[in-house]
Here is the input.
Amino acid sequence: MTTLQAIRGMHDVMPAQIGDWQYLEAQLRALTAAYGYQEVRFPMLEPTTLFSRSVGENTDIVAKEMYTFSDRNGESLTLRPEGTAGCVRAALEHGILFKQTQRLWYMGPMFRYERPQKGRLRQFHQFGLEAFGMPGPDIDAEIIALTARLWRNLGLETKLRLEINSLGTLDTRVRHRKDLLEYLNVHAHALDEDSVRRLATNPLRILDSKNPTMQALIAKAPRLLDFLDQESNDHFAQLQELLTTLGIAYQINPHLVRGLDYYTKTVFEWVNEEMGAQGTVCAGGRYDGLITQLGGEATPAVGFALGLERLINLLHLSKPAQQSVTPDVYFVLLGESAVQSGLGLAERLRDALPTLQVLMNAGGGSVKSQFKRADKSGAKYALVLGDDEIRANVIALKDLRGDFATQLSIEELIKFFESTLHERRVL
RNA sequence: GUGGGCGUAGCUCAGUCGGUAGAGCAUUGGAUUGUGAUUCCAAUGGUCGUGGGUUCGAUCCCCAUCGCUCACCCCA
Here is the structure.
């Protein structure tokens, strides 16, 4: 294949799809503003150690999915596989976490070297949100309420199911892991191939196995929730109370584990069943230990990320794609002199009506082809300028979606669009 | 990383039991010397993903490779 093409798993967003992205982005900006969160932007490229130290050396993300390479100084750099690490690094570096609370959000591309499939890309886009300095379940509930509101605003409230769990503290997991490994080793003969491999890498995952022959074994295994310390237990109970008070339905999934090492206490996922294997649209949780791990003062934190491509896929299950912008008028220009004066007239229209969207024909073409373009552009009106109009000092106006047609001077035309634009705003 | 399905025109696809290809849509022009979206006519457009093998001859069969896609794994 000699033709140039995009890197595997990295997609272009073309005009036919851009409406969805702009719609979603606008919804997210409005939502974060409603809860007092502020946008941050940080680099897509970071020192590799930032991710290995925060996400965890033994996670799949760090062990085999990172885009890592050396820069010209030999320093190892990595394209960010997730947003939390970079967000925390930036917040620490600018000293905005010390003895204060912060509510932050960000949006942009993330990179993971995985085999692409439905809902899984090598460059994908996440919206992420992080709340720092608040230790209680109230802020956990706030961000879950924020996501629930987003689904309502997007008309997806019936499409997503909330699952929650608590991972407790690091100590909780160490104690549970010890018991779990003991139990699994006793029953090692009953483990399937995947589970044997997970025994070494991530034994918690074994409890989440889809293999039906493993279910009896899993049912009797030590449960992480039984190992929670008092504080984690209270935190989890209070969160459930708050969710109930807010009227947010949830399910406790004791097998819910997040793939990143830094999570503590609350974890949650919003899941859809109709989207194939990658049905998790939004996931997150608390990570009280991460900031000390990265060299900051102990700071409680909680956040989540949502996959924009997955969310758009979900929107498409019930709605067609959002329309991208269509011009108000298409300017048909017939002949040399029309091209010359047409440019100026289009500028005068834009001067007088800054919100009017004027698409001017360029590159010539017959009347027929120019009208075809006008129709295809989605414009409501066509303006026509040719020798006849220039002689009469008028511009022909035609409603492409109705019967109306007339000839107007430029001043009359401005007045005409002023009133139709006004009607459009009122609608 | 493992496995399945698929690569033919800009797009969606047909087709050749092996003899170098067709439709619809789109584009351009015309029927209507200045009026689109309905109709009719015509034109433009393909190294049949790439490389190799078998064959007199391969787009078709075989092998490899790349890409897309779905699933496993994992995750947003």
Observations:
- Chain A has a mean pLDDT of 91.
- The two ends of chain A are 51 Å apart (CA to CA).
- The first helix of chain A runs from residue 15 to 34.
- Chain A has 16 helices and 16 strands.
